[in-house]
Amino acid sequence: MKYDATTNRVFFNYYNRTIHKPMRIVTTDLAREIALDFNKSIQQRVNELLKADCSNYTNLGIDSTESERTLVRGTSKDIYQLVNLIDEETGKLLMKTLDS
Q: pLDDT (tens digit, 9 = 90+) per residue, 57-87?
C-alpha cells in the first residue's frame, strides 16, 4: 500500500473536526464548594475560584459549541458573584469587567 500524505492529511483534518471531546467545566456547584471551604483563607478561596474560571476559558476552543460558550459565560458570572461575596473589592472589579 502506497502512503499518500495528502489523503492522510485530509483524513486527519476530517477526523479532528468530527470527533468532539466533552469539556471539563467547573460548574457553579463546585465553585460554591470552593467558596464555602472555610478551612482556607479568603485569598486562597478567591485564588481557587479564579483558577477554576481560568480553566473553563482555557478549555474553550474553536471547536466549542455555542452552548458550551454560553455555559462557561454563565458559570463565570456565578463565580464572580461568589468572589464578590467573599472579597467585595475584588468582586466589584470582576463584575465591572463582566458587564463591559
A: 998 988 889 999 999 999 999 999 999 999 9
Q: Does residue 57 form part of some domain?
A: yes
Whether residue 26 contacts residue 53, with contact meaning beta carbons closer than 8 Å, is answered with: yes
Tally the domains of the chain: 1
Cα Rg of the chain, angstroms: 19
Is residue 31 a part of any domain in this protein?
yes
The reported pTM is 0.73
The crossing angle, in degrees rounded to 10, of helices 66-86 and 42-59 is 170
CB-CB contact of 49 with 83 (8 Å): yes
Identify whether the C-beta of residue 71 lies closer than 8 Å to the C-beta of residue 25. Answer: yes
Note down the domain range covering 95.
Answer: 23-99
